[in-house]
Design a protein that fits this description.
It is built from 12 helices and 15 strands. With 424 residues, the chain is an alpha/beta fold. The strands form 4 sheets. An 8-stranded mixed sheet has the order 3-2-1-4-8-6-9-7, with helices on both faces. It has a 3-stranded mixed sheet with strand order 11-15-14. A two-stranded antiparallel ribbon has the order 5-10. The longest helix has 35 residues. It is globular, with a radius of gyration of 27 Å. The protein starts with a helix and ends in a 13-residue tail after the last strand.
């Protein structure tokens, strides 16, 4: 309603401006003024009118574009039945069939969760595999029209794959939100397995995402979700300041914000920058709802052998839509989670590793510097890197994980002032 009112105001200004300009132009003295002849004045008047018409045309195009966007932007939506398409980003993996098989197997409602495969690369064997699913299961197959190499200076040429991937993401998301006009999307890639409750998880968390402006995504991924580092509580969910990716959901309103400034490469790290995150958080699970089998890719198997292949994929169906997830709203969550961390007994990393306090349900280890965090993380087996100063899975600086069956909170001191982007 506010945007429609704005358009109305702009239209009134547009019309008023034209009336005034017409009055000013035609009311000029048609006689000779000084050395300026009537003919010269007419030429000047003609030039003024042409420039004004050009300006009016530009303004009218902007108004039409804004009006079109308003007409296409959905009004209030039923968060419990909104269509949540699955956008599968594909390239040249014929094993995309593995991902599609699971997405189809667990799909409870093909109308509510339509599957769109967006393919880059122009790889025919992969396209043939996808087309088989189009014929047999009615999924949608769209192809990125621009598969040319991107001209890059010599130092960046080795990152060609990252540039192409970012270009593909932007095109595919524009298709979902602007061409197909969906209100939200769940994004996966062609090397991901999904859990039996993958759809249930996103169905239940969408209303929370939609209603809480302090959230900007829901992810199926836990960066520290390796076997032995997560509990058996499959229904446990968290807020996180770290953008996880690897199976994630966002709304159209967020894409309208970030899409126009989408980066040329390394889009996931760009998402983690404060200029994009703007203090917002994502929802993530204790146990992953996706796992990757893709050793091959633009990252050349980075972290796969050392980390990714050990990620635990949830194998239990959790009826999330029947649970009250309002505890994930910012005010409720911070009151509960931060008090929980505050009340947890503090120990040193050596004490935690010794097992002498294994009778306690949870322990807290404090870090004050980047080096302290990295040292502790390496000793306990969690990921020790930062992106824009944020540790993986952290919320308000706190990283929660399991160590030898005991909950550990790796937390900053009570006088913590926030993330330092220099910790990267």
């Amino acid at each position: 309603m506010r945007r429609k009112h704005l358009v109305g105001v702009v239209v009134v200004i547009f019309l008023t401006w034209n009336v005034l300009m017409y009055y000013m132009l035609v009311s000029r003295n048609p006689g000779k003024v000084g050395a300026v002849s009537v003919q010269d004045q007419l030429r000047n008047l003609q030039g003024d009118i042409q420039r004004q018409l050009s300006h009016n045309s530009d303004l009218l195009q902007q108004l039409q574009k804004l009006d079109k966007e308003i007409r296409r932007t959905p009004g209030p939506i039923d968060t419990n039945s909104v269509v949540l398409p699955i956008l599968l980003i594909a390239c040249d993996r014929t094993t995309v069939s593995r991902s599609l098989d699971l997405l189809l197997k667990y799909n409870p409602n093909k109308k509510r969760f339509p599957i769109i495969v967006s393919q880059d690369c122009g790889h025919k064997p992969t396209a043939d595999v996808i087309q088989r699913y189009v014929s047999e299961h009615g999924i949608q197959h769209i192809k990125h029209p621009n598969i040319t190499d991107i001209k890059l200076p010599w130092p960046q040429r080795k990152f060609q794959g990252y540039y192409k991937l970012s270009r593909h993401y932007k095109w595919a998301l524009n298709q979902v939100f602007h061409t197909f006009n969906y209100s939200a999307v769940i994004i996966v890639e062609d090397d991901l397995d999904v859990s039996p409750d993958f759809y249930e998880y996103f169905s239940a968390t969408f209303p929370v995402l939609h209603q809480d402006p302090s959230l900007w995504c829901v992810s199926a991924w836990n960066d520290n979700g390796k076997v032995g580092m997560v509990s058996d509580e499959a229904d446990l969910l968290y807020r996180t300041d770290f953008f996880p990716g690897l199976g994630w959901m966002l709304e159209k309103s967020t894409w309208l914000e970030i899409g126009p400034k989408w980066p040329d490469a390394f889009w996931d790290d760009w998402m983690r920058h404060p200029d994009q995150r703007k203090g917002r958080a994502c929802i993530r699970p204790e146990i992953c709802r996706t796992s990757t089998f893709g050793k091959k890719g633009v990252s050349k198997g980075l972290f796969f052998e050392k980390h990714l292949k050990f990620i635990k994929l949830n194998d239990k169906f959790v009826p999330f839509t029947k649970k009250d997830l309002t505890y994930l709203q910012k005010d409720k969550y911070e009151q509960y989670f931060m008090k929980l961390v505050k009340d947890t007994p503090e120990v040193t990393v050596s004490e935690a590793m010794s097992g002498h306090k294994s009778n306690m349900k949870a322990l807290k280890i404090i870090y004050s510097t980047k080096d302290e965090f990295k040292s502790t993380a390496k000793k306990l087996g969690i990921m020790d890197d930062f992106k824009a100063g944020v540790p993986r899975v952290a919320y308000n600086g706190v990283v929660s994980f399991m160590y030898r069956g005991q909950r550990i909170y790796l937390a900053p001191p009570s006088n913590w002032k926030g993330y330092d982007p220099k910790w990267s």
